[in-house]
Amino acid sequence: MRLAEAWRVALDALRANRLRSMLTMLGIIIGVAAVVALVGIGTGTKGQIEQQVEGLGSNLLLVVPGRLEAGSAPAASTMDLDDVEAVARVVGDRDRVAATIASGETVRAGSRSTFASMQGVLENTPDVFVRRLDRGTYLSRTDVTTGRRVAVLGAGTATALFGDRDPIGRQITIGGVRFRVIGTFERLGQSLGVDRDSEVHVPVTAAQRLLGTDRIDGLAIRAPDRERINQLSTAVVSVLSDRHPDTDFSAVTQEQILGVLGDILGVLTGVLAAIAGISLLVGGVGVSNIMLVSVRERTKEIGLRKAVGARPRDIGVQFLLEAVLLTTIGGVLGMALGVTAALLVDRFSPVPAAITWWSLALAFGVSAFVGIVFGVVPAQRAGRLDPVVALRTE
Amino acid sequence: MTAPAIVATDISRTYDLDGVSVPALRGVSLSIEPSDYVAIVGTSGSGKSTLMHLLGGLDRPSAGTLLIGGRDVSTLNPAEMAKLRNETIGFVFQSFHLLARTTARDNVALPLVYRGIGRRERRERATAMLDRVGLSHRLDHRPNQMSGGEQQRVAIARALVTDPSVLLADEPTGNLDSTTGQSVLGLLESLNAEGVAVVLVTHDREVAGRARRQIVMKDGVIVR
């Protein structure tokens, strides 16, 4: 039998049982749609996070106390501003070393209040991390050395406290202490549903006084070039270890962060795809089941076809094509549904989604493969039917 | 005189039912000549259906030699048996066995599908064959739009479309009223006159009486 003829017969058989074919396909449609949509969300999230980490600026080296490895809790910091000076001498350029102490604080302006991440920083922070101001000015060297109570607001915090009014020159209180607003940042947007604009930068000295400490949480160094990052990393860690013999220090590069995040998100995407794959598997079992029913129902037809000259292989191919047709049509519909779902999620929720051609090709391939795997047993059964027995069936 | 279409020599067929051997056919010998018109008669359980399945190449004997179109069926695999049936035998069944959702023309063309013949030629040959059985006005009708007699004529056209040497008819008039049955028998006889061997399986003595020779079966053997 010619293949074109076999396709026509298979399509005809599916059309004869429209409702049943649709319901059987539904299992495949849902499975493929779930795979496409979830892989799309995983890919999109990964892409967005990588973009944000890259947005921190390249050649960045982050130094924190404690060992940075899976499962270890962050250690309490013992670093202070003298350590920053020591590291700056190693780096050879004070402007390349940023220090941070952070704390979540309630920020008030008049009757309005909001919760924000207060960051005690040095005046060089916008250069080390790439940050742009929207209005006003950033902290000055003098602000930091004198511990002046001035603040630069994130876009979200500025809106929460002042609405559309210009915040420059106005008074706010952080943890009950008054600060004067001298600038605002450009809006950064959200990341994984977390607002990145709810922050207040103040001089590190002012923040230390407010928190009653002389510690800092961590350092960030912008290396002059890529080649020196590893060398700098070793030198900085060794200086800090000399000054704090009881503490471990870790230095991580942006590439390392990207690698770790990429691994985590890759695993997450894999897990999501596997869960969706299970529903595709269940859909495949449904196809197998319906094909067995179909073989039984059409025993007489099989007997007749054999009597007039169909070889076992002709019958087998016919039923196999029917199963493959079910799953590939279901696969195409599922792809359409999955792409639509991913686009809707991307558009109307904070979760990003990106459709890749390879995920569509994979979904189509898998659905065709499911048809073959789950169609083989019913097809073999049909092909091996004894024509005498099949014809006798009523 | 050309070679016989089918030669059976001392063939037996034993079924295995739950471990018990049940002989359905016990040492039958016969030959079907080209342009033969034979009726195989017998009561239910006499082995006549088993014999017909064997003569049609749907089944293989447990013992003995069976030659169909000169080929020993014991040497053929299922695919070769299918090819042999397609080329040598035309089947007509009591319950017609037409594909329900398929037009008369495509039902008739079905055996040609398995011969790998293209769609256009299939339709041409099927149309010609439906014309030959007097149904040229029913080409695109489906079985449920036709009478029993017309359905059996479609089935006969399907059996003939491959130009077989033997037509095997299993109770071809069994589901038809007597007038329609007579006309179907008339059709078979006119085809026989054109040179196709016809083997009728029936329990109806009157139908069998019209054949040129009768083979009477009882308990798995030929009694006359």
Automatic annotation (TrEMBL), chain A:
Segments crossing the lipid bilayer: 21-42, 264-295, 316-345, 357-377
Protein's UniProt keywords contain Membrane: yes
Keyword list, A-Z: Cell membrane, Membrane, Transmembrane, Transmembrane helix
UniProt membrane topology term: Multi-pass membrane protein
Keyword Iron annotated: no
One Pfam entry name: FtsX
Cellular compartments annotated: Cell membrane
Domain ABC3 transporter permease C-terminal residue range list: 274-387
Domain MacB-like periplasmic core stretches: 21-236
Similarity comment: family membership: Belongs to the ABC-4 integral membrane protein family.
Protein name in UniProt: ABC transporter permease
Species per Swiss-Prot/TrEMBL record: Paractinoplanes ovalisporus
TrEMBL record, chain B:
Alphabetical list of CDD domains matching this protein: ABC_MJ0796_LolCDE_FtsE (cd03255)
Annotated Pfam families: ABC_tran
Presence of the UniProt keyword ATP-binding in the record: yes
Stored SMART domains: AAA
Endpoints of the signal sequence: none
SUPFAM superfamilies the record matches: P-loop containing nucleoside triphosphate hydrolases (SSF52540)
Lineage of source species: Bacteria, Bacillati, Actinomycetota, Actinomycetes, Micromonosporales
Keyword Transport: yes
GO molecular function, one term: ATP binding
Protein name: ABC transporter ATP-binding protein
Keywords: ATP-binding, Nucleotide-binding, Transport
Domain (ABC transporter): residue spans on this chain: 6-223
